[in-house]
Amino acid sequence: MNRHSSLFAIAFLFATATLAAQSAPSSENLYTQSHPAMGTIFTVQLYAPDTDSADRIMATAFDEIDRVEALLSNYQPSSELSRISREAGDGPVVTDPETFSFLTRSFYWSKQSHGAFDITVGPLLRAWGFKAKNGHVPTQAEQRPLRDEVGWDKVQLDPTAHTVRFTTRKPMELDPGSIGKGFAVDSVVALLRESGVHAAFISAGGSTLYALGAPPGENGWPVEIPDPRTPGSIASTFLLHDTSLSTGACTEKFFIQNGHRYCHIFDPRTLMPVEGVLQSTVITPSATDSDALSTVVFVLPPEQSREVLSRMRATQAILFRSAPGVPTCTVFAAPAHLCDTHTPSQHEGVRP
Amino acid sequence: MDRRSFTQSLSALALTSASLSSSALQVAHSVVAKPNSVDDTRASRQTARTTVSTPLRLGLIGAGSRGQELVRSFLRVPGVKITAAADVYPLRFQQLNKVCGYEVAAHADHRALLDRKDLDAIVIATPLGLHAEHVLPALRSGRPVYGEKTMAYTIEDARRIVAEVAASKQIFQVGHQYRYSPWIRAAMARVAAGEIGDVTHVHAYWNRNNSWRRPVPDPSLEHLINWRLYNKWSLGLIAELGSHHMDIANWAMNSNPIAAQASGSICCYHDGRETDDNVQVILSYTGGRRMVFTAMTNNAKMGDQLWLYGSKGSLNLTLEDATFFYEPKKIEVAKVVKTGDGHEPVVTSASYSPANEMPYRGAGSPVQIKEGEDPTTAATRAFIYCVRNGERPIADEHVGLGSALAVVSANEARLAKHEVDIAHNA
């Protein structure tokens, strides 16, 4: 699975506003800074009264992203998630409340999606060569142990003791790739709000976005959704306000073998790459949730996704598919014209 | 007697157990040792994964960013609970409750926290200028103490803490967590075994590219939040960043420095701060050995790293790894020439070879370790092990004193603009 981190063109449009401020005081200027983390580039745009204060807030924001990466990275042996992956096969591992809440939310989505979302897919991605960037269809011998190594139901969380235990009695490989960036974005958003920032836009490599407030004189931060059916074209434009948007696609991470294209987004239940899906986009107030749900919508059949999303507030989604005999664009809790319209659609989330 | 021999001469501390909950004193045999461990040192014993979950109640003095980070690590140790906290900034309690996931008893005065009878150990993460003011009464309250680095703002206070630890027979661990880093420990063991020869020089950098200034919601909170920038509370970059490197230099040199030179300036951030935004320190050790530390805040190219140099090679230490590099062999075995046989004539040439002067270009030899755990997570678990077992910490008060001697003396040299001798007996 480990969907996206795709830097494909979710083009972010910033309109230079000169109108009177709605969310941010008009005397503030827009500042932008980028920072590599979690295998991608995080970009923060925010309105601040001057360069010095923007610089301080940016430094704090990127420190927070680095802190979350150090907590959750599956590439850093010193991360808390790596420690759990190593030790929870030997018995219950006590972890801190923040890491436990991350795991709780991850496995919540595993349960809600009937296993379509699963952070235990590390061995699956490794077997298919996506970790070493040498994508290939694994041999039967390589595939055989995967059934025992992958599966969210092999992880037991004890909310009272804050412990994690693997029923496999062996190390597992927890991979935060399909939810960790959203978790980091939510942490930064909370910090920016505490710092008094009224208007900001956070992008985790383009695949998970959060719009805090709105630019001065605007109703939201504009975000374009590409139409993967016609490369280079735009399907919809959204104006986001206090909400998050995440997209999953296979436009960057894939390999072709014997003329067949294999996507890096897996269905953990079949242990096979998802077929016939081009792109999924989910809008919902939490970036952690939008990050995870973009994978859920990518993996599940639309009718099952609809059931999962129906329990969410202020949530919409768009799915593009290429399989024969199915609609190429499906919307969830949104008007059908979003598949083909260029008229900005406004989406307001829920301020915490 | 130097620190190491002093430390090794001590067996486990005779703890006063009155302040510990009885369950906290149960222990030991259920500690899970690392498999196939051949390094049965105190460090591996103290940092070993544990399944002991007997309740242990911590009181935190100073619930700012570092205090909260320590709490995250302490809460990864089975049985640990943060029972109470003291801070002068009320917002910290909200943040701490969020980190803990439950409500922690809040005190505006650290003395009220120390008066509580339901705490098994005290954690102190206040500004440096307040360390002794908080550590000393915490020790006198009859409980083990984890105190953040630098151990004290003055050498006199550092010595008072050493004396109080001895008088109270309490455990004290200083926040030099790199003493617990798996890759640094593994590398330093190889250095001690002579892998790069005798370490004669340590060059250390901690360079960043930001103002080191934190956002302040109200100007009245400037000194409280940006205390690192003001002399009353802080010894600046030398202490906040350099103390870790100076501690590692002391470790590598197996002694404390005997003299310090230093300089610094405010080069880039003319924003009302009092502490320098760049510093340079030279520490002298016996035998002409030197440690050089530099920190700057407007260019992060060198990042945070140390180089240990010996005649046989070099060791590079970072926050994530350790890598050895080796010097070219100076002497090669020549072909044996039988008596009476003539030598082949030597063709003369220019002797200079630029290749000998170039920096190493190879990848080096990384130190391979099985479990690259976060140093703070390991250090906090080790502290709890020591509390439960009455064992002397690796980063004890003498480690703290060694680093404090370097930091405080370097700062004195910076102010005096000349070399300062470091007195070891006071």
Low-confidence stretches of chain B: 1-40
The whole-angstrom Rg of chain A is 20 Å
Order of helices and strands of chain A: EEHHEHHHHEEHEEEEEEEEEEHHEEE
CATH architecture of chain A: Roll
Helix content, binned percent of chain B = 25-40%
Overall strand count of chain A? 18
Number of domains of chain A: 1
The portion of residues forming beta strands of chain A comes to: 25-35%
Q: Please trace the helix and strand order of chain B, writing H or E for each element.
A: HHHEHEHEHEHEHEHEHHHEEEEEEEHHE
What fraction strand of chain B? 15-25%
| Overall radius of gyration of chain B | 24 Å
The largest sheet of chain B is: 9 strands, mixed
Helical segment count of chain B: 14
CATH topology assignment of chain A:
T-fold
Blueprint (SSEs and pairs):
The complex is a heterodimer of chains A (352) and B (426).
Chain A: E1 29-37, E2 40-48, H1 51-72, H2 80-87, E3 93-94, H3 97-112, H4 122-127, H5 140-143, H6 146-149, E4 155-158, E5 163-166, H7 180-194, E6 200-204, E7 208-212, E8 221-227, E9 233-241, E10 243-249, E11 254-257, E12 260-263, E13 266-267, E14 272-273, E15 277-284, H8 287-299, H9 302-309, E16 316-321, E17 329-332, E18 345-348
Parallel strand pairs in A: 9-18
Antiparallel strand pairs in A: 1-2, 2-6, 3-5, 4-5, 6-7, 7-10, 8-9, 10-15, 11-12, 13-14, 15-16, 16-17
Chain B: H1 3-9, H2 22-25, H3 42-47, E1 56-61, H4 65-74, E2 80-86, H5 91-100, E3 105-107, H6 110-115, E4 121-124, H7 131-140, E5 145-147, H8 155-168, E6 172-174, H9 182-192, E7 199-206, H10 222-225, H11 236-240, H12 242-253, E8 259-265, E9 278-285, E10 289-296, E11 304-310, E12 313-318, E13 322-326, E14 365-366, H13 375-389, H14 397-416, E15 420-421
Parallel strand pairs in B: 1-2, 1-4, 2-3, 4-5, 5-6, 7-10
Antiparallel strand pairs in B: 7-11, 8-9, 8-15, 9-10, 11-12, 12-13, 13-14
Helix pairs in contact in B: 4-13, 7-8, 8-14, 12-14
